[in-house]
Amino acid sequence: MAQSPTIAIPKKSTEEVDWTGPIRAIIKASYGENPDNYATECAALQRCRQDAVRGAGSDLTAASLLTKYFGQLELLELRFPEIRVSFPWRDAFTAKLTTQTSMAFEKASIIYQIAATHSIIASAQNRSDPEGLKRAYYYFRTCAGMLTYINDNFLHAPSTDLSREVVKFLVGITMAQGNETFYET
């Protein structure tokens, strides 16, 4: 049986973000320490974001870099809950630029990027091979899980691609595509 074409979720795009200034200010104001002592760590965080959102393609390495950056965001939010950084993201469907200082917006955008990367990986699989079929199913399902997480945990979407209705629609598409892979055998 011929393979049905699949639809990969488009990725968002972003611009540079300056983590260094806000973190240095919080270290000095809240902790009374010299921010220069943490210059290496600030630079590493800056590089981590750049690698995750700028340098990564749409493969497993990209997914890994995005996941690593998301982990750093989780830790940063625990350590510096008061941090305010401007996060600019372009909507994946309208290309409209939305900038917020909310860590939740950055986290939701990164999870969306991971989901989109998983959908791209799933769509690229050779589904005529049994292992490729399994990988396609797995990545469509993980994509749907990531998108469901966005709907369950981020309630006020500032952009179309993160809105409840669009995310719910994308979950339906990826689940259907995952299920479709088994009808191709």
Task: Please give a handful of descriptors for the protein shown.
185 residues, mainly alpha, three-stranded antiparallel sheet, 5% strand, elongated
Layout: helices, strands, pairs:
Layout: E1 13-14, H1 20-31, H2 39-55, H3 60-79, E2 87-90, E3 97-100, H4 103-123, H5 130-153, H6 164-183
Antiparallel strand pairs: 1-2, 2-3
Short description:
With 185 residues, the chain is mainly alpha-helical. The protein is built from six helices and three strands; from the N terminus they run βαααββααα.
What is the radius of gyration?
Answer: 18 Å
Number of helices: 6
Spatial strand sequence of the major β-sheet: 1-2-3
* Silhouette: elongated
The share of residues in helices is 55-70%
Mean pLDDT: 92
In terms of DSSP E residues, the strand content is 5-15%
Task: Measure the end-to-end span.
Answer: 7 Å
Structural class: mainly alpha
Number of strands: 3
Largest sheet: 3 strands, antiparallel
Q: Which quaternary structure do these chains form?
A: single chain
Strand-and-helix sequence, N→C? EHHHEEHHH
Description:
The protein has 185 residues and is mostly helical. The chain contains 6 helices and 3 strands. A hairpin with a 6-residue loop joins β2 and β3. α5 runs antiparallel to α6. The radius of gyration is 18 Å and the shape is elongated.
